[in-house]
Specification:
It contains four helices and no strands. It has helices at 3-17, 29-46, 53-67, 99-107. The model has no long low-confidence stretch (mean pLDDT 77). Residues 65-111 are annotated as: Disordered.
Length: 111
Amino acid sequence: MNASQQHLLDAYRAAQRGEAPPVQPGADTVRAVLEVLLWRRFTSVVTDPADRFPARALRAVRSLGASLPRPRPLHHDPSASATIARPAAGHPVRTGRPAEADARRAASPCG
């Protein structure tokens, strides 16, 4: 049984008993929606901007982000390290290229 059939049955019973008929289904739906919209407008005016939903959501996201552990950097930043890496005793420091390659490159006329 849907709402219309239930309303017809209730109206019939009310007529048999001499009572007032029930309100039709959906008659107050528009008024209820308008009242909800009016209430939302009212609360948006009276509510402090810091307590509104977007501000609360942003604070929640920021606090969640602050509580998460930070990922490690993918590369090593030597300036961030307090200790300086030094070569082990008895091992020469490599500069990157062998000395002979530098001499050949300097002697080449093509560059």
